Amino acid sequence: MPELPEVEVVRVGLERHVVGSTITAVEVLHPRPVRRHPTGPAGFAAALTGRTLVGACRRGKYLWLPLAPLDSGPGDALMAHLGMSGQLLVQRPDAAYERHLRVRFTLDRPDTELRFVDQRMFGGLSVSTGGAELPPEIAHIARDPLDPLFDEALFVKRVRRSASGIKRILLTQTVISGVGNIYADEALWQARLHGERPGKRLTATQVRELLGHVRAVMNDALGQGGTSFDALYVNVNGESGYFDRSLHAYGREDEPCERCGTPMRRVAFMNRSSFFCPVCQPAPRRTTASRSRAGSCAGSSKTTPAAATTR
Hints:
- With 311 residues, the protein is of the alpha+beta class.
- Helix content is 27%, strand content 17%.
- It folds into 2 domains: 4-134, Alpha-Beta Barrel (N-terminal domain of MutM-like DNA repair proteins); 152-285, Helicase, Ruva Protein, domain 3 (Orthogonal Bundle), CATH 1.10.8.50.
- Residues 226-243 and 292-311 have low confidence and may be disordered.
C-alpha cells in the first residue's frame, strides 16, 4: 500500500502537471472507485465537469485537489485515496488505455489528461462538498510527522499514555498519519525498539528519538521516489520508486542484521508482517500483572503469534 512518501510524490506530480487545468469531461469506466460519491458515477461526473483544479493537497495518505469555487462559499474538492494499488497518472490523450483504467479526466490542455488506474479497486475518488481547505471526511486524521504544524509535544504525551505497542500506535492515523507498515518497521529498527514495546514504557526522549527516525526514513524515501516492490506503485509519470533498495528491516527475514549480524525475524502483525532484529530490538518483558493474568487463564497452552512477540 502506498504510504506517506509515495502519496507525497504523487501530490507533487499533480501539482506540477494538472493544477490550473479545467476538467472538460469525466468518464467513469467502472463504478466501484466512485462508490462513496452519493449520486453515483453520473453525479460524480456532473459535479466535476467544468471545474478548475486550483491546488494539490495531502493529509496523511489522502489526496485532494481543491476546485475553484462556483460562488462566494467554500470551494469543493476532488478527493482521492489510492488504497492498495491505486494510481493517478498523467498521460497524453492518445496514450493506450491501461488495463485497469477506471476513471478518465479530460482536461483543457491538449496534451494532458488525468487517469485513475486501480487493479484491486480498494482505492476511491469522491467530491468533497466544501472540502477545498480540508475535506470534512478526513478532518479526524492527525497531521503527519513532516507537516510543519505537527504537534510533537502532544504526540509524545499520547504515546506515553498508551498501553498499546508502539508499532500499533504508529499505525493509528488519528494519532499520527501517513506511517505505514514498511516505514514503521524501518524507524523502529533505527531506534532499536521492538514494535510490541508499550508506549507507556517509553521515555519522552525515546519517543522523540523515534519520531526523528520516522522523519528521517520518510525524507530518505521521498528523495528516492518512494518504495516500490512491483508495478502497483508508480508516480504520475508511471515511474516506480526505489527506496526498497535501502530498507534495513522490512522484507529481510533471515538476512543478517546490518548492525549486529543476527538473522532478522518476521512475525505476524495485524494481518501483515513485522520485521525486526531480536538482538538490537529485544522484545519487552511482560509485567508481573500480565504474567499473573496469563497464569490464571484456563484453556489451551498453545502460544499465539502475538504472545510470542512479547515473551
